[in-house]
Structure formats: structure tokens, C-alpha cells
Design goal:
- Helix 2 packs antiparallel against helix 3.
- The model has no long low-confidence stretch (mean pLDDT 84).
- This protein is 73% helix and 0% strand.
- It has four helices and no strands.
- The chain is mostly helical.
- The chain has one domain.
- The N and C termini lie far apart (43 Å).
């Protein structure tokens, strides 16, 4: 993942690339929720985000990913016709 150069208060990220990666991924996730208006696009963006998290090797998102996975399974079960 290509990390941007961070000005001023974000210089810490230059010293701690792992923290910078986590911050970028968190910002991307927030943007998905804040700026995606339709469900299909949100699902595609979330799937891409999950792939990026897995590729990063960061473990700080594991709890969120497990919760997200459980929610996704529950939603699929709830929307199936009897």
C-alpha cells in the first residue's frame, strides 16, 4: 500500500508505517459509510476494503472483521425467503 506523505501533526506516521497504514484503512472505511448512498456500491467497496486490510497484514481490524462477517451472514439468512 502506497502511503501518502503526512504534513505537520502526522509526521509520527513517517516514523511508524504500521500506524499510518491503520489510519489510512480506518479513513477509507469511514469514507465508505459516509459517502456511499447505495447498497450495491457499499458492498463492493466494503469487499475491496476487507481485501486491503487482509493484504496489509494488520491485526488491529480483526475484531471488526469478525463482527462484520457475522453480521453479513446474519443479513443473508434474514433476507432469504422461507
Amino acid at each position: 500500500m502506497e502511503l501518502p506523505q503526512f504534513p505537520g501533526r502526522f509526521r509520527l506516521f513517517e516514523q511508524t508505517p504500521t500506524l499510518a497504514s491503520a489510519y489510512v484503512l480506518r479513513t477509507l472505511l469511514t469514507a465508505i459509510f459516509d459517502h456511499t448512498s447505495d447498497r450495491a456500491t457499499a458492498q463492493r467497496r466494503l469487499q475491496l476494503w476487507v481485501k486491503q486490510v487482509k493484504a496489509s497484514g494488520l491485526r488491529c481490524f480483526d475484531n471488526f472483521l469478525n463482527t462484520f462477517r457475522s453480521y453479513a451472514v446474519a443479513c443473508r439468512l434474514c433476507t432469504k425467503a422461507p
